[in-house]
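Continuing the batch. This is chain 6 of the set; chains 1 through 5 are on the previous pages. Same settings as before, nothing changed between runs. Recording input and output for traceability.
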Amino acid sequence: MTKEIVSNIKDTSLALEVTAAEAKAAGRFAYSKPTPENSIVLFIDHQLGLLASNRFPNLSELKDNVLGLAETAKALDIPVLISSSNAQWQNGDTIPELKDVFPDEPIYRRTGIINAYEDPSFRNALKTLIKETGRDHIIVAGVPIGTCCVFPTLSLLNDGYQVFPVIDACGAWSQMEYDAATQRMANAGAELESTFALACELQADWKKPSGDAMLKPFRDHLSEYGYVIENYWNNANGHTVEDPFGQVK
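Output for chain 6:
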């Protein structure tokens, strides 16, 4: 018989044994991970016209990733900033689904400045948010990736922030643009993320109170895992491993 060692459901995530600063001082990689308490999410130029011009990844996948990131931020109470570029012309308005997730959030409408971090109104909003909250881990997604994500990412790195580009919530006009953008950001020191790997990193432990709310982005916007969840609960009474939480009867 297989021996099973089941962790106590009262266990919480262990902290690392040394701080990021100590690891850096020792010449090792410094892992200062994004958390719901230290992060801000930037949604840059997820606009109707720009998304319509997107060619990589496919538009339905990109839309799901953008909304999955938005629902994750909402579930974890992470503050967000939303910006658009030349919405009055060809780029169009911010996609309505993103506005529906954050109906009370203002949209910082840039009227020509391409790099959102170089726009005075947007930077002032970001700096104010950082000052008020003490947050310094910046999660960023933008369309297209080669400009609207890369430019603010490099700028933020230059000014001393930890930056986490969510590369599958960024559209590109081509594979070549996507590859060049991701290589440029990684070479500069940004920590590239995918939407749902980031969601897991932020949640850290499904026993946390946000766990139930965090099922929504996975179920609704990551179909591959959403169907796993639904399939399991549709067949839960046939489970083979005893559930220590007592959820499955």
